[in-house]
Amino acid sequence: MSAPPPARIAVYPGSFDPVTRGHEDLIRRSLAFADRVIVAVAVNVAKQALFTLEERVALMREAVRDPAVEVQSFDGLLVRFARQVGATVIVRGLRAVSDFEYEFQMALMNRTLAPGLETVFLVPAFDLTYISSSLVREVARFGGDVSELVHPAVQQALRRKFGL
Ligand code: PNS
Fold first, then answer.
1. Among 58, 4, 5, 14, which residue's Cα sits nearest to residue 37?
2. Which residue's CA lies nearest to atom 17 of ligand 1?
3. Angle, to 10 degrees, between the axis of helix 53-63 and the axis of helix 21-30?
4. In the predicted model, what is the mean pLDDT of residues 140-154?
5. Model confidence, pTM
6. Which residues are CB-neighbours of 160 under 8 A, at least 6 positions away?
7. Which atom of ligand 1 is nearest to the CA of 133?
8. Which residue numbers are catalytic?
9. Distance in angstroms (rounded) separating the CA atoms of residues 162 and 137
10. Rounded distance, CA 64 to CA 30, Å?
11. pLDDT reported for residue 164
12. CB-CB contact of 107 with 92 (8 Å)
């Protein structure tokens, strides 16, 4: 009998400050082609994060409870992390044309650094395409209702963060 094929592992990296329903949707979609999805929460984010690394990881774990999904944090180069965990695919979301330039650059840079590690772009459900972590933070900061946009645990964490 021949050995079973190796598990297809996808890495889904991001700041997740905080995780939104859009991120959750992409994780679910990734499981259509990956046996395991490792959500890689970046230690260093471009902007000052609202949530600490520990909070971002904990909220992701609460929002996505699936045995095929693992949440880890990573520091340094994404491609190094992806190799360490045995991933062959990097998943990124594309919501609008405005996302494209940055994503295109990143995908090409990652491919230069790690040939063979492919970036796959996924489009979220149509009604989630306008959601971003930054918009969620802003709406929540001023007391707006984000219940449709994030998991209840994230909504609660935002309320606590902003003292609401
Ligand atoms: O959610 P974000 O902020 O768009 O995620 C960006 C992230 C964390 C995926 C990206 O900045 C990243 O991969 N950082 C790790 C450092 C790295 O590998 N940089 C080179 C990528 S071309």
1. 14
2. 77
3. 60
4. 97
5. 0.96
6. none
7. 1
8. 23, 47, 95, 133
9. 10
10. 13
11. 80
12. yes
Residue 116 backbone zone (phi > 0: left; psi -120 to 50: alpha; other: beta): left
Terminal CA-to-CA distance of the chain, rounded, Å? 61
Residue 71: what residue type?
Answer: V
Q: How confident is residue 1, by pLDDT bands cut at 50, 70 and 90?
A: low
pLDDT grade, residue 100 (50/70/90)? very high
Amino acid occupying residue 11 = V
Q: Are strands 118-122 and 69-74 parallel, antiparallel or unpaired?
A: unpaired
Both tokens of 94, joined, read 């594309």
| Residue carrying the six token digits 């209702």 | 145
Task: Look up residue 123 and give its amino acid.
Answer: V
b or e along 21-59 (b: 16 or more beta carbons within 10 Å of the residue's beta carbon)?
bbbbbbbbbbeeebebbbbbbbeebeeebbbebebbbbb
Is any ligand 1 atom within 6 A of the Cβ of residue 14?
yes
At 38, list the tokens.
């490792």
How large is the average pLDDT for residues 29-49? 94
Beta carbon of 20 within 6 Å of any ligand 1 atom: no
